[in-house]
Amino acid sequence: MGGKASALVELMRPRNLILAALTVPLGAHFGITGAWSTSDVFAVGVQVLTVLTFMGAGNAMNDIKDAAIDATAHPARPLPSGRVTISDAKRFVVILWIISFSSMLVGAWWLYQSDLAWWPLMVIYLLAVALMLTYDLGPQTKAKGLVGNVAISLMVAAVIGYGASTVGSISALVAWIALVVFFTNLAREIIKDCQDMLADEGERTTLPMKIGQDNARMVAYIMIMAGLVCLYIPYWQGPFTLNQLLFQTPAILVLITLNGPLYKGEDAVVGMRIRIAMLLGVLGFVLTQML
């Protein structure tokens, strides 16, 4: 029984959930203007559970869909290895969805009772559900290259907005931070498609396949520059000041020095540095708000 339980948890891909678990309270932190209250901590904790079970359900659904492919490509995964049956995995997905939806409703009810805006929480959640279902099921935007890249990037950026909505505070600052995450993640997705172009042949129609790898890398660099502009605006227009932009120096330096590796076609290096820059950028915003 223990082996089966651990295999079901493995379907959720716990390592991929760590960043999501951190991003929700970060989004809430950007929305809270004063000190955290006990009720804020409770509300955010409930919505961390919402996001973890939401993403876990999505990852498990993906493994169910790709079970036949994984039998050859990833035979050690829970389904192809026989540690979990398809029917058990499907029941597990239903349980995860029930927990996720129920905890989201608890959060919306808490916001309503606290006379805070409850509808952004529900709207962002339902938008994320639609994006996830259409990515692997429905129209399968996963196979459509740039459309799928945009869908994934919207879901990643939405977690910041969702975190802020857990405490009923969607501000201009939260919107700009979400846009930074969206554009930089979109650049990373395009670069990953450049890196995987041969492996994706026949399975997906990606941007590099349509316009060539060099042109796709140029599009990725434009997305990086768009992310930099969005990062700069809160320091130019407020609520921060220009001298506080110093906290973003590490992230800015990582991003503006990507033109060399992009020109050389070092896609793995670029993808890793973009992820590092995203983390440094979010940390820069946290430090700006704290100090």
Kindly describe this structure.
- With 291 residues, this protein is an all-alpha fold.
- The chain has 2 domains: 8-170, UbiA prenyltransferase (Tetracycline Repressor, domain 2), CATH 1.10.357; 171-291, Four Helix Bundle (Hemerythrin (Met), subunit A).
- Helix content is 77%, strand content 0%.
- It is built from 14 helices and no strands.
- The longest helix has 28 residues, at 38-65.
- The chain is flat.
- The relative contact order is 0.10.
Summarize the structure.
The chain is an all-alpha fold.
Describe the structure using short key phrases.
Tetracycline Repressor, domain 2, 291 residues, mainly alpha, Four Helix Bundle (Hemerythrin (Met), subunit A)
How is this fold's topology laid out?
Blueprint: H1 2-11, H2 14-31, H3 38-65, H4 67-73, H5 86-113, H6 119-136, H7 146-165, H8 172-195, H9 197-200, H10 207-211, H11 213-237, H12 249-256, H13 259-264, H14 267-290
Helix pairs in contact: 2-3, 2-7, 3-5, 3-6, 5-6, 6-7, 7-8, 8-11, 8-14, 12-14
